[in-house]
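Hey team,

Filing this mostly as a record. A colleague (T.K.) asked me to run one chain through the structure pipeline before their review meeting, and I want the input and output archived in the tracker in case anyone asks later how it was produced. No errors, nothing strange. Just documentation.

Input sequence:
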Amino acid sequence: YKARVSNAVAAEFGITPAEALADPGAALGAAADRIPTDKDGAIDLATGAAQAVLADLRPSEASMDFEGATQRGTALAALGRREEAEQAYRAALADWDGLTPFAPAWVEFRIGEVWNGVDDRRARHHFERALAILPAYVTARVHLAELVAVQDGPEAALEVLEPALESDDPEPAA
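Output structure:
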């Protein structure tokens, strides 16, 4: 059974669970490469056309798959509709295969970003949840450390960052 799961994960993500545990950075990269995106939708979001993206994604469609729900969440967040954005991101998990921790960790991180700078307590909670799911998630760790630095001081932030400093990811050094 374990071999079948390992083979299925390797076929889907291009990395086995054993390789992912040995090199979390490579695992996150492999997962990020597999997150579905729509090029035109991404361009629209990047150029500020979030309303156009949202108009193209009816809620019933967005709740049916990971891609639609995450695009909807991103568009809603860009429009400042934070509660709805969080709901859309949560709906994305209904399409999650349950095999890997990458999707739920990413969703928690994205929800944290929705609230970052608006409701830092709430943002911190979601960054902490992302790390509880995937402790090697460097970007979530850095965002959490930034909030911890403000809320609890620089020493506490360094404690949060310490595991990330051992990685090859350049973000903690910045």
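Quick notes for T.K.: The mean pLDDT is 75. The radius of gyration is 17 Å.
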